[in-house]
Amino acid sequence: MALDPKIPEGPLADKWTNYKNHIDLVNPANKRNIDVIVIGTGLAGGSAAATLAELGYNVKAFCFQDSPRRAHSIAAQGGINAAKNYQGDGDSVYRLFYDTVKGGDYRSREANVYRLAEVSSNIIDQCVAQGVPFAREYGGYLDNRSFGGVLVSRTFYAAGQTGQQLLLGAYSAMNRQIGRGKIKMYNRHEMLDVVVVGGKARGIIARNLVTGEIERHSAHAVVLGSGGYGNVFFLSTNAMGSNVTAAWKAHKRGAFFANPCYTQIHPTCIPVSGDHQSKLTLMSESLRNDGRIWVPKNMDDVKAIREGNLKPTAIPEENRDYYLERRYPAFGNLVPRDVASRAAKERCDEGYGVNKTGEAVYLDFAAAFQRYGKERAHVRGLDENDAALVKRLGQEVIKEKYGNLFQMYEKIVDQNPYETPMMIYPAVHYTMGGLWVDYNLMTNIPGLYSIGEANFSDHGANRLGASALMQGLADGYFVLPYTIGDYLSKDIRTGKIPTDSPEFDQAEKNVKENLDHLINNNGSHSVDYFHKKLGKIMWNKCGMARNAEGLREAIVQISELRKEFWKDVRVPGTQNELNEELAKAMRVADFLELGELFAKDALQREESAGGHFREEHQTAEGEALRSPEFQFVSAWEYQGEPKDAILHKEELEYENIEVKERSYK
């Protein structure tokens, strides 16, 4: 079945404007009679809930955290992209659009990406008006820095806590609407099913995580802003509570799941220290603006470092391999994430890793200390040849830009990154796959929308850094409020959606049966036992590099693990209490299904593209090798078992960008 993305007619640059000019609207008096459910209160869900409520809709917002401020968006560090061209360095809406499509290895939809670039400037204005404390230059103008995969500076930032500040802006907008009574907030609630009535999404089944009570909630439309599924790998940079449940339940109700194999491996994470770990910590990509990545050239130096007999600062420049600068001179340390991650893996696989496990490379700021220190000394009329002074002044500049990140690194690793290089290694971070949506951000189930990381639409096979925050806020503040209005204009006479229908009865029954099974199973292994086993299968067979044999093995192993889970998982406690193990068990059950579909999607995609790297499909230089026949979106239809899922395709047409081999050299 060919999917219809509902892309408007006309020139690319005019599509969004023409679309908005011709959609149906809901007048303010009628908005008061329409209910919308929003799942998730991160940047996408929070901005959507606030904006829809401000427009006049009645919004029910759900989050499984104790507060919307706990959403994983708060962990984003480096910045948010926007085509403002404040630096005067040649940026434009088209260049942001081009960089995003190229960065995604030509596997994203042109119309959606151009719209994203087009509204990006509005996001910055909105957030400044909310009081978001973006960094500013000496003269008071908003500052920018660079991120991977681009040749301009377009990333707005607030030190190393950009996500937190942007989320506080969305949270304040939500709180205003909560105070007005336009948003009814359901903290500590988790969506466990979507209810489809008459072919339309009309509500959800939710569980009160404090009391265990199962609740029915109805609405005229349901919006999923529930984030990504990186925790299918167990170890990731995601918050431990991040999960796929909302999107997966929608998939099991008929929503197509698109490109599940497109997962981003972030190159600058603190390396794994042992099996005791439950999550990984990200060091912002913004650090690659000033940090240089290297490993020793000589194996003797590597061995001495691992044995603790040599410090990295003692290795002279001529014995260091700045491999990104060597391999990709045009972009250097700011190549896209998939390229940087594979390059680090290649060096470590060759034996040049610098920690005890051999899975780490250096991120070194010594050159930045010198560069910034000399500039500051010059400005202040001080001695530029005083090495100690220059280093101290340079460290002051780095502390102003990234101080909280350096502090976080030191607390975790117990090493001072001002005195010795950071150690980093790639780790699972973001997921480009998600629910399939059309140009309106609606899934193939009418009335069910998916926004932010929960959908697949904007990043193709690899997301450029600082674009996640951009997409989440673009969807919530500036796209969904228009597109959902066109749909809801047909519902102004529908009236309240009742919750006593057979569809709600059946959905609640399914949820209760699963909960009853898990709590009464009395198996012999904990939830984490199964989650860790799944994570190892995923990382070893579906991680940075994949091959047909490993993917076939993964499909079988995950299927067997899932059967074992339902037979032998042990969940302590009861249903009618705050039971985090029970909540976790429900989420891991969904991961055990998603993981198999992930491997199936990766197996059928006989090419390498962005974060999906098939060892059988690479160039002579070890770069990803795309295949023209896979220039489509893989959208999977649920059929009871992941192995039975049916593939639907959305062919990707490029009318404004020439598709060619990606090069950052």
Widest sheet: strand order? 5-2-1-9-17
Q: Kindly estimate the percentage of residues that lie in beta strands according to DSSP.
A: 5-15%
Question: Tally of extended strands?
Answer: 19
Helix content: 25-40%
Count of folded domains = 3
Number of helices: 17
Top-tier CATH class of the largest domain: Alpha Beta
**If you average the pLDDT, what whole number results?**
96
Class inferred from helices and paired strands = alpha+beta
- Give the low-confidence spans: none
Please tell me the CATH architecture of the largest domain by its name.
Answer: 3-Layer(bba) Sandwich
CATH topology term of the largest domain: FAD/NAD(P)-binding domain
The CATH superfamily of the largest domain appears as: FAD/NAD(P)-binding domain
Q: What radius of gyration results from the CA coordinates? A: 25 Å
- Note the main sheet: 5 strands, parallel
Question: Overall 3D geometry?
Answer: globular
End-to-end span in angstroms?
A: 39 Å
Domain Fumarate reductase/succinate dehydrogenase flavoprotein-like C-terminal: 531-664
GO cellular component, one term: plasma membrane
Active site: 337 (proton acceptor)
GO biological process, one term: anaerobic respiration
What does this protein look like?
The mean pLDDT is 96. This protein has three domains: 296 residues, 3-Layer(bba) Sandwich (FAD/NAD(P)-binding domain), CATH 3.50.50.60; 158 residues, no CATH class; 131 residues, Fumarate reductase/succinate dehydrogenase flavoprotein-like, C-terminal domain (Methane Monooxygenase Hydroxylase, Chain G, domain 1, Up-down Bundle), CATH 1.20.58.100. The protein contains 17 helices and 19 strands. The protein has 665 residues and is α+β, with helices and mostly antiparallel strands. Strands 5-2-1-9-17 form a five-stranded parallel beta sheet, sandwiched between helices. A hairpin with an 8-residue loop joins strand 18 and strand 19.
